[in-house]
Specification:
Elements lengths: L1 H13 L1 H12 L7 H20 L5 H33 L1
């Protein structure tokens, strides 16, 4: 039962990341994105993954952690792409 509840929590958090990713791609700016926040979320997911590994609890929950981490990783990549765009736009002004 605890795996089901943990998965539900991860799905609820995880649904926001693809939405944020699409928004970041569409707006083409990093000005409303906090890199520190993205790093904090990444560390949280890494801790969750580590807890599953250390506890030898290799279940489908680990797959959800990894999926969420991948989408947050994509958000980080888009953040740096958009930050470069912002720098070029600022230099052009």
């Amino acid at each position: 039962m605890s795996d089901i509840l943990e998965t539900a929590m991860l799905i609820c958090f995880g649904l926001s990341w693809p939405i944020n990713l699409v928004k970041s791609i569409q707006t083409k700016t990093a000005k409303a994105t906090s890199f520190k926040f993205l790093l904090l979320i990444t560390v949280g997911y890494l801790c969750g993954i580590a807890a599953k590994i250390v506890g030898h609890n290799f279940s489908y929950v680990l797959a959800v952690y990894l999926l969420n981490l991948a989408v947050v990783g994509a958000n980080i990549v888009v953040y740096f792409i958009n930050r470069q765009r912002d720098k070029k736009a600022d230099e052009a002004e």
